[in-house]
Amino acid sequence: MxxxxxxxxxxxxxxxxxxxxxxxxxxxxxxxxxxxxxxFFVLSGFLITTLLVQEARxxxxxxxxxxxxxxxxxxxPAYWAYAAxxxxxxxxxxxxxxxxxxxxxxxxxxxxxxxxxxxYAPPFDIWEHQHLTGHLWSLSIxxxxxxxxxxxxxxxxxxxxxxxxxxxxxxxxxxxSFLVSSTYEIATDPAPLHFRIYTRGxxxxxxxxxxxxxxxxxxxxxxxxxxxxxxxVVAAAVLSAVVPSALxxxxxxxxxxxxxxxxxxxxxxxxxxxAMLWYGPKDRIASALSWRPMVYIGKISYGLYLYHMxxxxxxxxxxxxGLDGWPRPARYVLRxxxxxxxxxxxxxxxxxLLERPFLRLKxxxx
Length: 366
Known about the structure:
Blueprint (H helix, E strand, L loop, with lengths): L6 H18 L10 H25 L4 H28 L14 H9 L22 H20 L5 H22 L7 H4 L2 H4 L1 H15 L1 H7 L2 H23 L5 H25 L4 H6 L2 H8 L1 H19 L8 H35 L4
Helix pairs in contact: 1-2, 1-14, 1-15, 2-5, 2-9, 2-12, 3-5, 3-15, 3-16, 6-9, 6-12, 9-10, 9-12, 11-12, 15-16
């Protein structure tokens, strides 16, 4: 296994965050850009599990306090800064109307954000500006994964059961998706299918399962180094994103079918692509994804995801709100350019001023 940094995976992160940002900005042809979140899930599952395997083989086990310490130092400084911004906006500046929905009031809402269970709150109904935090559900799912999976891994890896457990959880997530889709009215309440760890955690667990299989099977890693296999994996990954998007635009099926059938195919293709980049040689595929601008965007992708909805609000509703007399294409291009530039500026400042000092502390917990 490579112990060094794999630049092509940062390039893949840039693809994921670009898809999400373009989706939220309403870029034509990016109506399924939310699949970038599932790509992030796949990356997290594969990389976290692979690093846990490396630690277990090197040290004879995993240190849960050190693992959780590394995750806290990587994610929480920027996240809590954003949570503090939301709190101050509501309590100090009285910014936006607050309501009570399904038994949730503003105190429950803020508590759910600070304690990372926002994906279980009623989405987009409690605070007038809840779109500024609506994307945090995916970070909650990742944090729940970071808490639960290392415990399960530590209990099962030395008994050679972790791989079996991971694939069983993949099947469980698929089963949960089908069960939820048959028992909930997804059209009126999409939260159970779209925002829960037991359904959208499929990508994470698929990444975990393939990481364990690849770590055990030298035959699989050798196949992933074959040029024919590598180009086939790239083709499958591209088709898994493009084909369902085209079919959705043609209205061949609805959103529920997309989540039940095409998202699993997308996660499987992307898991294989991640494993291929991790284990394979630096060929033209890896070199293309290692393009320096893409690597930089991937490096700050967490901040881009965290702050991009704030930049969207500032662009469309504050800075460039008064462009109604402009031609529609010119108005949109200007706003999109401002949105991308502002998001990049905020995320870069966050990375260098807030996140990187804690990353230096994180490196001491190896």
